């Protein structure tokens, strides 16, 4: 199959809508990462997404809708705080999990009685969702466990010849996946951290929890139990107070391979005599650059050595979560 990479012109959007109506998968730009979209009402189309990605079938998908789409037929009620958050943060990088009415394909939620909904703000995503005129399931457009894509080229690297169309909206400005927020309880609870932070949610509605998975329990957000976002090279990870050990690790690798550090700007400045990828100086910059640098890292480095950034709060909570998963530091399963 030929994979076309097209800017979202009227003719490209018409083509995208035709592919979706035919049950095909279409990749599209969002403000977080690129998504791999298909018709949420069609069992075949939803299953195709799992098959294309090699995604475990117990990891549910997020349904993406246009800003004017009325979600009330899909969900079984909305608490007042969720209505407030929806008006405050959508369209934007926030996914809201509601009780489901079971109206979309049963394969979307993988047996959970909830449905995750997102309204992306990217003009390309909005134009695509308007043209498709359907709710669209869309996980990140990468092979399962690989690094999420933040350019059309990244999507093509994983799916060349496997999907008919990538809607190219340029680089993703956010860079990490949406915040996933459980809106089924008395107060909102973050299932996955992202650019809409706990602090921002708490400021809007007074309180916001963070979900901690308990041993033996079925996770509320199954995707977070998997190893994720991994570059295809060896990795090592050090906290910022262990730079000496990190340099020793680099020196050892240097004998046979090509080590690279991945660290924030101020640490890069300290390590300036070594190969290093600069994540940036602000949390937003680090979110935007992380996945591109992990993909660049797997091409250039035999060993990628992550140095944990110093800041841990706000947007950095999401960046740290992705970094630790990429470097294999999280081991929930
Ligand atoms: P991805 O689309 O690959 O970025 O992953 C989507 C994330 O949303 C995964 O962590 C899923 O487990 C999570 N998710 C999707 N649907 C639900 C749901 N109904 N309840 C809880 N988490 C969900
Ligand atoms: Mg993903």
Annotation field: number of helices: 10
Mean pLDDT, to the nearest integer, reads 95
**Unreliable segments of 5+ consecutive residues:** none
What do we call the CATH topology of the largest domain? DHBP synthase
The SSE order reads: EHEEHEHEEHEHEEEHEEHEHEHEH
Domain count: the total is 2
**What is the CATH architecture descriptor of the largest domain?**
Alpha-Beta Complex
CATH superfamily of the largest domain: DHBP synthase
Main sheet: strand order:
1-8-2-3-7-4-6-5-9-10-11
Q: What fraction strand?
A: 15-25%
Describe this structure in words.
With 333 residues, this protein is of the alpha/beta class. The chain has two domains: 4-177, DHBP synthase (Alpha-Beta Complex); 234-326, Threonylcarbamoyl-AMP synthase, C-terminal domain (Rossmann fold). It has helices at residues 10-21, 43-53, 80-89, 123-132, 152-159, 198-205, 243-254, 265-270, 283-300, 315-326, and strands at 4-6, 26-28, 35-39, 62-64, 94-99, 114-118, 136-137, 165-167, 179-182, 189-192, 209-210, 234-238, 259-263, 276-278, 303-307. The strands form two sheets. It has an eleven-stranded mixed β-sheet with strand order 1-8-2-3-7-4-6-5-9-10-11, sandwiched between helices. The chain has a four-stranded parallel β-sheet with strand order 12-15-13-14, with helices on both faces. Helix 8 (265-270) links the parallel strand 13 (259-263) and strand 14 (276-278). Helix 1 (10-21) packs across helix 4 and helix 9 (283-300) runs parallel beside helix 10. It is globular and about 60 Å long. The protein starts with a strand and ends in a 7-residue tail after the last helix. The mean pLDDT is 95. The structure holds adenosine monophosphate and magnesium ion. Magnesium ion binds next to loops.
